[in-house]
Write a structure and sequence with these properties.
CATH topology of one domain: Serine Threonine Protein Phosphatase 5, Tetratricopeptide repeat
Oligomer: single chain
Number of helices: 19
Number of strands: 6
Order of helices and strands: HHHEHHHHHHHEHEHHEEEHHHHHH
Strand order of the largest sheet: 1-3
Strand content: 5-15%
Length: about 500
């Protein structure tokens, strides 16, 4: 009945159009119009070299503008605030639901992040569909392939987050054809797609990345260019999620061979003076408000109002137990906020803030992928395939920079936990902890063991059905082909 209703609505809308115009203005549920003129869907304006380059620039700009709320804010609260690294902080009810595993299908954050990620998918789809058709001689075959490869990485990166957050999701890889009153029923399934199995989504991610790897540019003007290093880093992360350890090692080795090096001082990564460093593989570059400034820093750092992602007692204890002074100093900042707000977890005279994004003048870059991540993913792969000594060497390489002694892990099980701990202390407030715990199957026992500063259990009640967010109810209401995740 819903399908009939939507078709009737579409046909009714068509009757209101002038006689000379039979194109319907319908926005698909899982594919957001990119640009005010709808240039990201049917009837794309990608016609020549200039418009092809502009479309790619627009896809990159979505990291900073079109979906910025996800990339500069939600990504980090989802990855850390949902984990044992931090409390939601601030005063947003939707994030309290996430923090306390009370998410509803009407959760505002779940709804907007679905839209933001599909917005990025739509922009990439438009490029992938239209750039190969450009006949402008000034757009070389090599450059065409680069643009398409970069778009395939962007699409794969968005789908990797979608499938990890929501599970089975609609897999939209084709640009919608022009919608008219005569074809709306024929393309209904494309307009309102059903969810594809996660395995199918992962297969498309790998396909996109395999095709992108040999095509993308080897270097760029800065680290906000998709290069082979970024592609193989994402492949390593995807394969780690799928537990294909041979592929993790293969892709990590390809990244390492490209010559990235750890910064000598951990603080260099965050002080704003070493952006696009030798360690960075893919980095979002921000300069000023006019070009999409990073307002996310002000969401996590500052005493003007209570911020998001308040570091947890559990995380602070983890740094202190490890005597990890170096990384703690760059990750957590404390201030006296007496009289400014109340808090159930921390005394106000020594209140902690997430500190890696600390420049609030719009210019703070965001490092999405860096070498330390790749080294520890390779260590994980080596450990899981029986090379304890190789894993130890890589873990100690990361620990040495933090001025810590060699890991005492003496067998595979101990090394598995040592790598988990190392990733937590190294990547806190980089949006990784939740996904690490989920992919390793550790999230339920870890979260149920979390305590407050007085040693009392926080009584997180977490089941396997809560590891995924719900499909937004608003999407289900508009799309008869969508179904809901179990438990919602």
């Amino acid at each position: 009945m819903k399908k009939i209703k939507y078709i009737a609505l579409a046909l009714g809308s068509a009757m209101l159009l002038p006689a000379c115009q039979d194109q319907l203005d319908l926005q698909p549920v899982s594919q957001t119009v990119v640009g005010e003129s709808g240039s990201g869907t049917a009837g794309s304006s990608i016609k020549d070299a200039a418009s092809a380059e502009a479309a790619l620039a627009g896809a990159y700009a979505i990291f900073k503008n079109g979906s910025a709320e996800y990339y500069v804010m939600d990504y980090f609260i989802l990855g850390d605030g949902q984990s044992d690294n931090s409390y939601a902080g601030a005063d947003n009810a939707a994030w309290f639901e996430v923090d306390e595993f009370r998410v509803l299908s009407t959760n505002a954050v779940a709804a907007r992040d679905w839209r933001y990620l599909y917005n990025h998918v739509a922009s990439a789809n438009s490029i992938i569909a239209n750039v190969p058709k450009v006949t402008d001689a000034s757009l070389s075959a090599t450059r065409k392939a680069q643009i398409v490869g970069e778009a395939k990485f962007i699409r794969a990166r968005a789908y990797f987050d979608l499938v990890r957050i929501y599970g089975d999701v609609p897999l939209v890889v084709d640009e919608l054809p022009t919608i008219t009153s005569s074809n709306v029923e024929e393309i209904y399934g494309q307009l309102y797609p059903a969810r594809s199995a996660a395995e199918e989504v992962y297969a498309q991610i790998v396909k996109d990345l395999d095709e992108a790897a040999p095509a993308v540019p080897k270097t760029g003007p800065n680290k906000m260019t998709v290069t082979p290093g970024a592609v193989h880093t994402l492949l390593a992360k995807v394969y780690a999620t799928r537990k294909d350890w041979a592929k993790v090692k293969e892709n990590a080795d390809k990244v390492i061979a490209l010559g990235y090096t750890l910064m000598p001082n951990f603080e260099d990564l965050w002080d704003g003076k070493h952006e696009n460093s030798a360690e960075a593989i893919f980095e979002l570059n921000f300069e000023e408000w006019a070009t999409g400034g990073n307002w996310g820093s002000s969401m996590f750092y500052g005493t003007d109002w209570k911020k998001f992602n308040t570091p947890s007692n559990d995380l602070v204890k983890a740094y202190d137990d490890e005597k990890d002074v170096v990384r703690k100093a760059s990750t957590i900042y404390t201030a006296n906020v007496t009289g400014k707000w109340s808090d159930r977890y921390w005394p106000l005279n020594n209140f902690p803030f997430a500190y890696k994004m600390r420049n609030t003048d719009a210019s703070q870059n965001i490092i999405m992928y860096r070498l330390a991540d790749v080294l520890l993913l390779k260590a994980e792969a080596l450990n899981e395939t029986g090379d304890l000594a190789g894993a130890r060497t890589l873990v100690n390489q990361v620990r040495t920079r933090a001025k810590l002694p060699a890991t005492p892990a003496a067998d595979q099980a101990a090394m598995r936990l040592a790598i988990e701990k190392e990733r937590r202390l190294e990547f806190a407030f980089e949006g990784q902890r939740w996904h690490d715990l989920v992919r390793t199957g550790r999230v339920v026992p870890v979260m149920e063991a979390v305590k407050d500063g007085a040693g009392n259990s926080l009584n997180y009640k977490l089941s396997d059905t809560k590891l995924l967010w719900p499909v937004p109810q608003g999407e289900i209401d508009k799309n008869a082909n969508l179904n809901q995740n179990n438990g919602y």
